[in-house]
Design brief:
Radius of gyration: 25 Å
Strand order of the largest sheet: 10-9-11-12-13-16-17-18-19
Largest sheet: 9 strands, mixed
Helix content: 40-55%
Strand content: 15-25%
Number of strands: 19
């Protein structure tokens, strides 16, 4: 009978990465203690005798821990030590021949980079796939460049499509995966039907770590978080949503929790966003320097990224903040200001979405169109131009599903979607469109209200935030002392601060689509 195996945290060894003072065997032992569930011994430069000796030493550790040991490429070494299986690449022995030599009870994994390779491996009876590479890596030469989580998802979905019951295909991804991005990779690479990868394979994240046990523990914690939050979101009914939105707003107004909302935003709106955050019950911090992001991430409750006044130095700070936010599972709100206006902005945003887990993307119709690849709307500077989407609901759902996040699209009617639940919000006032920064303040509102429900129901937090700021705009615009944009701006901040739970509940105007 074939050994049962858990792919969740798959260690691929590389003795050249082991820190001074440690041995390969010690590193593997400590990694298993920290949570590694399967080990592949990969020693490309070792001769046969040394490889077998090393394999026996490592095997004594893995067997004691009941962790499967696979041998990379070398069928002869696997047979010599009676390993639990092998992992083979596209240039190694064909799967059919490996199976013939090893028999039906050994584990055989296959590296794949394309849909075609995945289909051949699945139909050939591979026990699991190693799909890669996800990100750039120096641990192995590859013929196909980094695919990112989106490319991994495409291969994974094809593998699922050609997999026939009762033999369910299993898979991990490999290539540049570490504690900072593992949760994002697992979430983003989930198939559209909600089926997620079985785990991740890592090399340097553990092999080069000063403390392999701690490194494995952190990775397992991130994997556990991803499993709790990945996949298809549950469908909500209007009564449930109304109750939850009211509860999130009431909790914020009660002042029991004051979320620390970090902004790395454009220079035009820093003051407005800071005041809006305070008025809505949050505590703003405007901190963009690379050097302080690791410390800030330990206490920040939400991170708002806004590329309005884009600068190279600022992007470096944004990326470092996002990296640490992912490590601490802090929700990131991304405002891709004018993303469709220039090639550079598009590249910056594409790379952020590829590399980091985003909780909410907020944009106007032109910005969301750019992310959707739609020509229905365009950007003219920071303004959306065009006649509008023929089907805005389909667009926001598409972008939410593609990027595995909540999407907020602002306009005369605002749309909020997590891909399963989509809402139309009809609160707000036309004066919002004639003051600079009103859209940026929506990002602030999202960050202020989302922190308490970011893991279980981020769409509820996003909906609460946009309702709160839009209701405040309505109340402000109807004040007798508001004569135009100038007086509205001050009244707008006042209304955010003074907005009561009773006013919020009485004015909410949204529907489920």
């Amino acid at each position: 009978m074939k050994l049962e195996f858990d792919l969740s945290l798959y260690l691929v060894t590389d003795s050249t990465m082991v820190p001074a003072g440690k041995t390969l065997a010690e590193t593997v032992d400590q990694a298993i203690q920290g949570g590694v569930t399967i080990v592949q011994l990969r020693e490309k430069s070792a001769d046969t005798g040394d490889f077998i000796a090393t394999a026996r030493t490592v095997q004594s550790i893995t067997r004691k821990a009941s962790v499967p040991l696979l041998i990379n490429d070398r069928i002869d070494v696997a047979l010599a030590i009676d390993a639990d299986g092998v992992h083979i690449g596209q240039d190694d022995m064909p799967l059919s021949e490996a199976r013939q030599l090893l028999g039906p009870h050994k584990i055989i994994g296959v590296s794949v980079q394309t849909c075609e390779e995945a289909e051949i491996a699945v139909r050939g009876g591979a026990d699991y796939l190693g799909i890669g590479t996800c990100y750039s890596t120096n641990t192995k030469a590859v013929k196909v460049g980094p695919q990112g989580p989106a490319g991994i998802r495409a291969v994974w979905e094809h593998a699922l499509k050609v997999s026939e019951p009762p033999c369910k295909v299993r898979a991990v991804t490999i290539g540049g995966v570490n504690q900072y991005n593992v949760a994002h990779v697992l979430n983003y690479a989930c198939a559209v039907n909600g089926t997620c990868l079985d785990g991740v394979a890592v090399v340097s994240a553990i092999m080069a770590a000063p403390d392999p046990s701690l490194a494995a523990q952190v990775l397992q914690q991130q994997i556990s978080t991803a499993r709790q939050t990945s996949g298809i979101r549950p469908k909500y009914d209007i009564d449930h949503v109304s109750q939850q939105v009211a509860a999130v707003f009431a909790q914020s107004k009660a002042g029991s929790i004051t979320p620390l909302v970090q902004h790395i935003t454009n220079s035009v709106v820093i003051n407005d966003c800071a005041n809006a955050c305070l008025a809505l019950g949050g505590s703003p911090i405007m901190a963009a320097d690379v050097e302080e992001q690791a410390d800030l991430a330990q206490v920040v409750n939400a991170l708002v990224i806004n590329i309005g006044t884009l600068a190279t130095e600022q992007v470096a700070g944004m990326r470092e903040a996002m990296r640490h936010a992912n490590l601490h599972q802090t929700p990131i709100i991304l405002d891709p200001v004018a993303v469709g206006a220039t090639t550079h902005r598009m590249q910056v945003i594409d790379e952020m979405i590829r590399d980091f887990g985003i909780c909410v993307i907020k944009g106007n119709a032109g910005e969301i169109a750019a992310l959707a690849g739609s020509a229905e709307m365009k950007m003219r500077g920071v303004d959306a131009v065009g006649t509008g989407f023929a089907d805005p609901v389909a667009v926001v759902k598409q972008v939410a599903l593609r990027h595995r996040c909540v999407v907020v699209m602002t306009g005369v009617v605002d749309y909020v979607s997590d891909g399963t639940n989509t809402f139309a919000v009809r609160n707000g006032h036309k004066l919002q469109s004639v003051i600079t920064g009103s859209g940026c303040m929506v990002g602030t509102a999202l960050g202020t209200f989302i922190h308490s429900v970011a893991k279980e129901a981020p769409v509820i937090g996003a909906l609460t935030g946009i309702l709160a700021i839009n209701i405040a705009a309505e109340i402000a615009a109807n004040r007798s002392d508001v004569q135009g944009p100038g007086t509205f701006r001050a009244a707008f901040i006042d209304s955010m601060h003074n907005l009561t739970t009773e006013q919020f509940n009485a004015h909410t105007n949204f529907s489920i689509l």
